[in-house]
């Protein structure tokens, strides 16, 4: 990307047309204005499912804060309001159905989650590639994309039969391509591709997924001051449910990853005390620029008032805080339980980097290499075009980013990437 491009891309006309159509439907009395109030949302979820038990009520605290931020800061458009209500209600439906599954099959919560392998790194630092390469090894268990979208099987789910959640995931991805095809260029996926456990944290209305989708800075700052352990306990319970629905052996370690773990390492390790950690690192120029681009391309779907410079400032701040918290938490982690892998190492010699990871895990890599090669070929087919972005689109400069995050670069020996090659 050249320095001449100073404005980020706009959204597709599909959303503009959808907004106009939904506004007309409201004026004609054919559609209501979504009510984004906690009690109304919970009452609708109870009525839809016929269930009452949402589980640990801790989730109501982040839900309250998120709803206030959505109403006061996000400035959602007509389609964005409808989508927000649908997302809130879907999470509440899943919480109710999860409790029903746990009650009818108590063996689910008795499943073990032994020594998971958890990839931890800033957004856009190569966590997805590392996660998917490891997920191709059948000695591990991983989530699939449709399961992070819908972690909880629907009532009536039967092992071995077609899963309606995969059908829903295909529909959601089709709509996402219409709304803004760049979002799937930035993070290519498919319903059955290995995917991070982000949706399991969303089950508690927790985490950066909301900040990357809506402009809700007050919610993000509130989360930064909270103890995340209850959200990670809910995540662990849902992992057991996902593993049970896959009929995966509870002896196989899970492969996990989401950038939220950078913020919450103490909570993560309290819930998963025997985890082994793979830390990924990349030049902050690419991390901040690519993350701001990801947030921009999602926010403009739901709001007509997104400010690229505000998004740039927020994700520079958030990246700095992620790194600070990660570095502080590492002081209490035994060195033999973690390994560092650099983005450029994976770019230049991914096999060599993965051999180092497998040595750390005390596993023979040879049985996994054919599946890893197959993933690399499949990934090339998923990513049809490169993700293009620049810091300048978001009011930032390389000098400022390196100035604020230079100590991170020096401490971990991170190679600086060529400024002109802002592709990821």
Total of domains: 1
Strand element count? 4
How are the strands ordered across the major sheet? Answer: 2-1-3-4
The number of helices is 18
**CATH class annotation:** Alpha Beta
CATH fold node name: Rossmann fold
Give the overall average pLDDT. 92
Q: What is the assembly state of the chains in this entry?
A: single chain
CATH architecture: 3-Layer(aba) Sandwich
| Poorly predicted runs | none
Pfam families: Sulfotransfer_3
GO molecular function: transferase activity
InterPro entries: P-loop_NTPase, Stf3_sulfotransferase
Protein name: Sulfotransferase domain protein
Task: Give the helices and strands, then pairings.
Layout: H1 13-27, H2 38-49, H3 60-74, H4 78-104, E1 117-120, H5 127-135, H6 145-149, H7 164-179, H8 182-186, H9 198-202, H10 208-211, H11 217-224, H12 229-246, E2 255-257, H13 265-271, E3 276-281, H14 284-302, H15 308-330, E4 338-342, H16 343-361, H17 369-382, H18 398-412
Parallel strand pairs: 1-2, 1-3, 3-4
């Amino acid at each position: 990307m050249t320095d001449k491009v100073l404005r980020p891309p706009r959204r597709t006309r599909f959303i503009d047309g959808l907004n106009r159509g939904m506004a007309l439907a409201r004026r004609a009395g054919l559609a209501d204005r979504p009510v984004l109030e906690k009690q109304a949302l919970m009452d609708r979820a109870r009525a839809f499912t016929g269930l009452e038990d949402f589980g640990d009520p801790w989730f109501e605290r982040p839900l309250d804060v998120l709803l206030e931020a959505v109403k006061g800061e996000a400035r959602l458009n007509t389609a964005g309001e409808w989508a927000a209500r649908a997302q809130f209600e879907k999470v509440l439906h899943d919480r109710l159905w999860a409790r029903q599954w746990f009650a009818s099959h108590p063996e689910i919560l008795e499943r073990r989650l032994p020594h998971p392998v958890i990839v931890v790194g800033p957004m856009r630092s190569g966590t997805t590639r590392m996660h998917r390469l490891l997920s191709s090894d059948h000695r591990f268990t991983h989530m699939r994309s449709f399961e992070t979208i819908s972690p909880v099987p629907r009532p009536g789910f039967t092992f071995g039969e077609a899963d309606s959640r995969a059908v829903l995931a295909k529909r959601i991805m089709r709509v996402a391509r219409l709304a803004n095809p760049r979002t799937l260029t930035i993070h290519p996926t498919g319903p059955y591709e290995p995917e991070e456990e982000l949706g399991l944290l969303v089950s508690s209305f927790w985490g950066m997924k909301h900040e990357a989708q809506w402009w809700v800075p007050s919610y993000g700052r509130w989360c930064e001051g909270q103890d995340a352990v209850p959200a990670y306990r809910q995540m662990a319970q849902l992992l057991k449910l996902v593993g049970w629905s896959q009929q995966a052996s509870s002896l196989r370690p899970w492969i996990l990853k989401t950038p939220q773990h950078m913020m919450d390492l103490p909570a993560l390790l309290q819930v998963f005390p025997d985890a082994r950690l793979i830390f990924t690192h990349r030049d902050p120029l690419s991390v901040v620029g690519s993350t701001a681009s990801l947030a921009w391309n999602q926010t403009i779907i739901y709001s007509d008032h997104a400010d690229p410079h505000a998004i740039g400032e927020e994700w520079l701040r958030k990246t700095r805080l992620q790194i600070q918290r990660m570095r502080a938490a590492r002081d209490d982690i035994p060195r033999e339980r973690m390994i560092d892998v650099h983005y450029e190492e994976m770019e230049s010699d991914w096999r060599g980097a993965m051999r180092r990871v497998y040595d750390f895990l005390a596993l023979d890599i040879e049985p996994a290499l054919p599946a890893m090669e197959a993933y690399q070929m499949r990934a090339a087919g998923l990513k049809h075009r490169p993700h293009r972005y620049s810091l300048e689109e978001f009011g930032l400069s390389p000098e400022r980013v390196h100035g604020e995050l230079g100590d991170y670069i020096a401490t971990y020996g991170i190679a600086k990437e060529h400024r002109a090659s802002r592709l990821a």
